[in-house]
Amino acid sequence: MTMAGGGSILVRRKLPKTGLSALLLALATLTCASAYAQTLYKYRGADSEWSFADRPPDDGQNVEIRQMQQRVSRAQVTVMHSLIGSEIVFVAHNGFHAPMELALNFDAITGVEFPHSDNSLRWVLAPKSDLTLLTLAVLGTAAPPNVKYHFAYLPGDPVAQHLPGGGYRVPFSVGSYFAVTQAYPEAVTHRTLDSQYALDVAMPVGTDVVAARGGIVFEVASNNFRGGLNLQRDGRSANIVRILHDDGTFAIYAHLNWNSIRVRPGDRVRVGDYIADSGNTGYSSGPHLHFAVQRNSGMRVESLPIFFKGPNSGRVVPATGDMLTAYP
Asked: How many CA atoms lie within 13 A of 306 on its CB side?
């Protein structure tokens, strides 16, 4: 059976912002907090033990239903603008422990000079930093100054180059081996640029997941327990860890088990560090680990071909149907 699923991409877009000609024009920098409910079913199993699941039992027995309200606080990038004297100043804040590329687009400008044509309106924001993006002069015309804009951002510096060195560590315990259920060039669900070279490995829920390469953790989602093949319902419910590598690439570990993640944004991990348990959360047809190494190729995320360390310093390129073994 092919275990299929997809990891999520960190691509955030913001709705248009409108500046008024009154006093200070500023947008507060806030921590992103999304809330949604998950349904938990409690019932007796075959051996009369209590079972907890994200769907009711097939036998139609009475169940206790709980609505679990999930609040997930994540970092974000914000853009604020201020009227200072006769100028409007735009400042971006990056709340992530990783560089972020930001693209700004103006929808309407009135009573303010247009950005210079040489300005690409793209910037790379350093981790946990603020950056003044641009300054536009108020023209002093009859039309009051007004700006309307939107922006998008995603992780990574587009000049980063993939430098894998001696290869990646297989992301589970040494001596363990599991079946590869999807790998390049097979594309059951890995049909987009960000997942083209991703790897799916079938493994029981609760299997140790370790860092395939050292780096800085910059995004974590850990309190989802739902999984299935309803993309609209389950697509946003994967527990994940994203780790930034020293060469500017980053890895995603997805479908992790509920409340099992042992790292936080800002933590530096070493290769082989235990970071989470495998699971079956999000858009997934069965328990497995989705792993990919990615880079920012200029306001788009692309996955990268990789190889793992094998025995006697050999290289292992995973293929669908192989048993993948972890070596030190």
From this structure: 32
Buried b / exposed e across 174-203, counting CB within 10 Å, b at 16+? eeeebbbbbbbebeebbeeebbbbbbbbbb
**What pLDDT sits at residue 55?**
58
Angle (CA) 92-304-308 rounded to 5° is 125
End-to-end CA distance of the chain: 29
Q: What is the pTM of this model?
A: 0.80
Q: How many domains, in total, are found in the chain? A: 3
In the chain, the amino acid numbered 207 is T
Report the largest interatomic distance among the alpha carbons of the chain, rounded to a whole angstrom: 79
Domain boundary among 46, 73, 100: 73
Could you tell me if residue 310 is inside a domain?
yes
pLDDT tens per residue, range 172-207: 999 999 999 999 999 888 999 999 999 999 999 999
Query: Which residue type does 290 have?
Result: H
Q: How far apart are CA 304 and CA 57, in angstroms?
A: 41
Cis check for the bond before 127: say yes or no (omega within 30 of 0): no
Residues 6+ positions from 287 with CB-CB distance below 8 Å: 3, 202, 203, 204, 205, 255, 278, 279, 280
Q: Is residue 165 part of a domain?
A: no
Name the E strands within 19-143: 32-44, 50-53, 64-74, 77-84, 87-94, 100-110, 122-125, 129-137
The answer to whether residue 57 sits within a structural domain is yes
